[in-house]
Amino acid sequence: MKKISFYLLINKLYLMSFRTYLNYLKTDILSSSWFKKACKEKKIKIKFLSKSYFCDETKDYYFKYEKKNLYFFKLFLIKFEYQQELENNNHLKLLNINIKNETIFKVVTFLFSIQKLFLKTNYYLDMNIIDRKIFISEYIKKYDSYLDTSILSKIINNTSYMNENKIYKLTNLFPKKTFIYSLYIKELIHSESIKNDDNLVELLFIKYHIKISRRTVCNIRNTYLIPRTKKENLIDLTLHTKDFYVERKKLTKKNIFILENDLSGVYELSSEKTISYPFLKNKVIYIGSSNNIKKRLKTYTFKYAHTKNIKEFIKENKNIYFRIIRTLNHKEFERKLINSFINIHGDLPKLNTQRVLNVPNENNYFNKSGFPV
Predict the structure, then answer these.
(1) For the chain, how far is it from start to end, CA to CA, in angstroms?
(2) How are strands ordered across the β-sheet holding 63-66?
(3) 149-158 vs 90-114: helix axis angle to the nearest 10?
(4) 235: phi > 0 → left, psi -120 to 50 → alpha, else beta; which?
(5) b/e for 245-254, b at 16 or more Cβ within 10 A?
(6) DSSP letters spanning 44-104
């Protein structure tokens, strides 16, 4: 293994925020007089660790995962080459940057190769449970480079990435065992007839080859607020069937036409394909509300739609289905349903972009006599 003088590496370099490290590279290194002089004298060459990079400056993430490929911000792929020591030991600064950039690049590349399936599906049950000591051992074998738990912790705690327009900490790919176990338990409770924790212990071993005690199962359930048995009033893991004004119907002009005019309520869009959310799978793609559902649903059958994402999804998927709930207080109902969906599935419905936070005053829905408007 290469003997790299890691004691030369300034510890705070790993702890720097995205913006601080970027400014350090730009101001203290690339724009400094000693660096420009050394480049002019051809004492320094700039190379890059990979050709897969992007140049547009980001706010807070080092790299992005796009179309099954990793793209780093260009400056974080820099590797300096120098043949001799520079004045005032400035070559040590370049060495420190080389070590940090190369280590982060290798750690990220290796980690993403391990979690390839999860990154494809975004379904937490597809995520591999990674032991950090084993990861370090395999990393050293693969790259013949130094890595320890301290450096690894600093990297995963201080590095962010973008995936599907969302920013995540690298720790997202290093989940705790108990968290993954909680998802297995939740999946079993929703899909199997569970009587007690002993039943869960048995099924965890049979289905997932996980051997843990009854007490551990109980502790995990309590920690992650998982009920012992499935809640019977939840249908399709999200909405209450009894509240729906119509059963799930295909999104067509004919089916929309028969709806009442000026119908206020909440609506759900779903597809034929099952979508993998972080915690569970479901066909629901959007939950919305309107004081005129008929008019809103009509927009989805034309070239334009309520949002760009919905428009593109409908264009790519022929069969979309809808169902609605009649309610005057539609914003409040929408908020509750979306929050329920997030709690159960671990994320917003695929085409929703944000939660409903501000709900109009309930009095707006009634006139002075107390009757619905």
Answers:
(1) 76
(2) 53-54, 69-73, 63-66, 160-163, 166-169
(3) 80
(4) beta
(5) beeeeebeee
(6) EEEEES-S-EE-SPPSS-SEEEETTEEEEEGGGGEEEEESSPPGGGHHHHHHHHHHHHHHH
What pLDDT score was predicted for residue 240?
A: 44
34: left (phi over 0), alpha (psi -120 to 50) or beta: alpha
Assigned token pair, 215: 């007490």
Structure tokens at 231: 């809640």
DSSP string, 202-247: HHHHHHH-----HHHHHHHHHHTT--SS--TT-BTTTB-GGG-SS-
Query: Per residue in 25-84, pLDDT tens?
Result: 999 999 999 999 999 999 999 999 988 888 887 777 888 888 788 888 888 999 999 878
Q: Please tell me the pTM assigned to this model.
A: 0.66
C-alpha to C-alpha distances, 290 to 161, 295, 302, 330, nearest whole angstrom: 35, 9, 18, 7
DSSP-based three-state secondary structure for 356 = coil
pLDDT, tens digit, for every residue of 187-213?
Answer: 888 777 888 899 999 999 998 899 999
| Whole-number Å distance between alpha carbons of 92 and 89 | 6
- Domain 241-365 coded CATH 3.40.50.700: no
- Calpha distance 84→180 (Å, rounded): 50
Residue-wise pLDDT tens digits, 158-190: 898 888 778 888 988 988 888 889 888 888 887
